[in-house]
Amino acid sequence: MPAITASMVAELRAKTDAPMMECKKALTEADGDMVRAEEILRVKLGNKAGKAAARITAEGVIAAAVEGQTGAMIEVNCETDFVTKNDSFLAFAKACAQLAAAHAPASVEALSALPLSQDGFGPTVEDVRKGLIGKIGENMSIRRFKHYANGGTLANYLHGTRIGVVVEFDGSDVAAKDVAMHVAAMKPAALSSAEVPAELVEKERKIAAEKAAESGKPADIVAKMVEGSVQKFLKEVSLLDQVFVKAADGKQTVAAYLKAANTSVKSFTLYVVGEGIEKKVDDFAAEVAAQVAAAKGQ
After folding, report:
1. Which residues pair with 141 in a beta bridge?
2. Model confidence at 237: pLDDT above 50
3. How far is residue 70's CA from residue 148's CA, in Å, rounded to a whole number?
4. Beta-strand pair 264-272/153-159
């Protein structure tokens, strides 16, 4: 039997996009015959990994692994909501969160290179990902993660599997958990007004200026109207300035709630599944019309 070399495995992997160990097994079974090994993989995996690689992954789950002052939150995407309930997919997301928390990888690529074995796939996170693509039949990707080990205690809240929050704090665990739930509900853009991204402020300022200009008021009044609108916007999107969702009087701010609980929040991370990803919208009628037109042209 011929020796199965690393270059042979790499060549087969490039052709099929199958996990490395699956390529090696197929080559061994095929006695080194590249064509036969490719056929074995296509029978076993249906060549799903390669076909799925270009499809949009706008669905998915948020997973977190938090213990004391160390933790991580991650978004792992797939194509359809159906797969977000798949046990293997959920186990993969959880394992990735745990690895990110334990190893603090510098990037998704670094996380993907960490050791992991699941469902017979491995030996790395990337190999498991590709193996699950073949097994489940959908593309999936690790989109982003955030690692925490900055000295503050961590609290996290998951709203189902679609919204996740990690809060870094000093003080009361109960207060921090309440604030994490508040973040999930109100989705602030920043911790304080000073930390709101400049592009968001400028966008709001531009909109306010256009509205104020339509009033026909003098320039100095228009300027005050614009500044008032911007300040109102900053309070609405800044966590500490927002009205706390559990406020009994409907007026207490998050900052006031935290002060009363002798707690301070250093930072927070909010992940919403698919946020910012352009989802593909299938036009069924157009697809049928295109197929009919193609059939007539034959």
Report:
1. 77
2. yes
3. 5
4. unpaired
Report pLDDT digits (tens) over 259-286.
999 999 999 999 999 887 655 544 445 5
What is the 3 state secondary structure string of the chain?
Answer: CCCCCHHHHHHHHHHHCCCHHHHHHHHHHCCCCHHHHHHHHHHHHCCHHHHHCCCCCCEEEEEEEEECCEEEEEEEEECCHHHHHCHHHHHHHHHHHHHHHHHCCCCHHHHHCCECCECCECCEHHHHHHHHHHHHCCCEEEEEEEEECCCCEEEEEEECCCEEEEEEEECCHHHHHHHHHHHHHHCCCECCHHHCCHHHHHHHHHHHHHHHHCCCCCHHHHHHHHHHHHHHHHHHHEHHHCECCCCCCCCCEHHHHHHHCCCEEEEEEEEECCCCCCCCCCCHHHHHHHHHHHHHHC
Distance CA(192)–CA(297), nearest Å, equals: 61
- Cβ 177 vs Cβ 157: under 8 Å: yes
Lookup result for tokens 């920043």 = 190
What's the rounded Cα separation, in Å, for the pair 217 and 212? 8
Work out the number of other CB atoms within 10 angstroms of the CB of residue 282. 7
pLDDT digits (tens, 9 = 90+) for 155-182: 999 999 999 999 999 999 999 999 999 9
Q: Residue 25 is encoded by which pair of tokens? A: 């097994």
User: Distance between CA 207 and CA 181 in Å, rounded?
Assistant: 30
Contact 288, 262 (CB under 8 A): no
Q: Which amino acid is at 179?
A: V
Instruction: Record the pTM.
Output: 0.72
Give 47-87 pLDDT, tens digit per residue.
444 445 545 567 999 999 998 899 999 999 998 989 999 99
